[in-house]
Amino acid sequence: MTSQERLQQIADESANIVFFGGAGVSTESGIPDFRSEDGLYRETYAYPPEVILSSDFFFSHTEEFYAYYRAKMLPLSAEPNAAHLKLAEMEKKGKLSAVVTQNIDGLHRKAGSKRVYELHGTIHKNRCLKCGKGYPASFIASSSGVPRCTCGGLIKPEVVLYGEALDGPTVDGALHAIRRADTLIVAGTSLTVYPAAGFLSYFGGKHLVLINRDATPFDGAAELVIREKVGEVLSELRV
Ligand code: NAD
User: pLDDT digits over 16-35, tens only?
Assistant: First the structure.
């Protein structure tokens, strides 16, 4: 039996699948991940990405933060790929109960998924730190220097920067979904960013499936490991 056939078998016998994904889910939409060969970590900047994308850096080097953020983290013309679309279809058909994502690009919602736990927030919400007024991502993209609110306050993306805590209700919802799942499909994540990677340990269901191009520290724990592109694998799944 091929791994694709085994995945089909698992999907057929599952009634409550949860998908847990990372940056690799969006590479087929043209958005680079962090740790692949063509990922953002291989590019050379004055500071490494985890420094630039940290809370400390945001407040101490705000203009440099925004220069990087606008150039690298705002893929506003990207479209959902076959993985996002299949997951939305699986939810519609009652097969999949939730998507838990580390991504901030908003592509699962754009594809039509309704129950999405965005552990690291979203580029599509931005808020003035002084008066709380909200701004769309397009406002940040077309701004220059440091984006400011009409009240003069500093605008901050509602993404979880390194050094910041995850949102409590989002974590609770994600863990609740993972605990109740009979199958957890983990894909496109190096499983090295915590606390998100630790969420896998809350899964107590029947089938743990990993779809990832490179090896991960959790490969040994999975029933099925598929080292292929997640969009290609999921697009062949019949639900
Ligand atoms: P990562 O870069 O650490 O790992 C990505 C993994 O995906 C790699 O192991 C790679 O082998 C695999 N991969 C890449 N393309 C794939 C494909 N088409 N099919 C299957 N596997 C593929 O990403 P991470 O674990 O998500 O951690 C990085 C952090 O930065 C996360 O918080 C992440 O969400 C964030 N980030 C988000 C975006 C985005 O929103 N699109 C982009 C870059 C980074």
Answer: 999 999 999 999 999 999 88
